[in-house]
Write a structure and sequence with these properties.
Strand 3, helix 3 and strand 4 form a beta-alpha-beta unit. The chain is 48% helix and 28% strand. The chain is α/β, with parallel strands linked by helices. 21% of the residues are buried. It has a domain of 125 residues: 3-Layer(aba) Sandwich (Trna Endonuclease, Chain: A, domain 1), CATH 3.40.1350. Strands 1, 2, 3, 4, 5, 6 and 7 form a seven-stranded mixed beta sheet that branches. It has four helices and seven strands, in the order ααβββαβαβββ. The N and C termini lie far apart (112 Å). The longest helix has 66 residues.
Length: 200
């Protein structure tokens, strides 16, 4: 014969179940806390690794960009002299300011008394780079810095890697295209190419 539950038995049973429920909830919360701590640690580690990877990619991109510049700069004057543009002076990483604010930046500037060749250098040349250089040329044409006033402005793009499509786009835009031609860099435009002239 089963013992009949008293009111106190029921209260004790409910109390035990409440204690067990609380114990399980606490254990679950502690487990969630450990998971959260582990997640935060993993996320922090991931963020650190991504930051390091971004830095390394940036360094590599900078190194390749420098490589492109170093391949082109030493021969730039001679390249244009061979095209009948008698350059006397070159300067790299030129910035012009208006009212204390950077107005335009030029990777490589070649000048003589009458002409300035403004060269944009990229490791890999893309169509958007050519478009930006067109904008740069227009900007300089419309508001030429004192050093470039009254000069004929000619644009050029230079790169280690350039697709035929982008090369043709740059040539159609009126730019000289400088690229790797075997072991050295050279102008790839045909000898009778007539560049676009912006008169400042």
């Amino acid at each position: 014969m089963e013992k009949e539950l008293t009111k106190q038995d029921i209260l004790d049973l409910l109390a035990r179940q409440a204690i067990e429920f609380d114990r399980r909830m606490k254990a679950s919360e502690e487990k969630d806390d450990r998971r959260q701590i582990q997640f935060e640690k993993t996320k922090k580690d991931f963020d650190r690794r991504m930051k390091e990877l971004s830095r390394q990619i940036g360094d590599l991109s900078h190194t390749w960009g420098r490589f492109a510049e170093e391949q082109i700069k030493p021969h730039a004057i001679k390249m244009f002299q061979e095209r009948g543009i008698d350059i006397h002076y070159k300067s790299q990483h030129v910035e012009f300011e208006i009212e204390g604010k950077k107005y335009v930046e030029i990777d490589l500037l070649l000048i003589n008394e009458e002409t300035a060749v403004i060269i944009e250098i990229k490791n890999t040349l893309r169509q958007r780079d050519v478009g930006k250089h067109l904008e740069r040329m227009e900007k300089i044409h419309q508001n030429a810095p004192n050093q470039l006033k009254s000069k004929r402005l000619i644009g050029a793009v230079a790169s280690n890697i350039v697709s035929l499509e982008v090369e043709n786009y740059a040539i159609q835009a009126g730019f000289f295209v400088i690229k790797s031609l075997g072991e050295v860099a050279g102008i790839s435009n045909s000898v009778n190419f007539e560049p676009k002239i912006w008169q400042s």
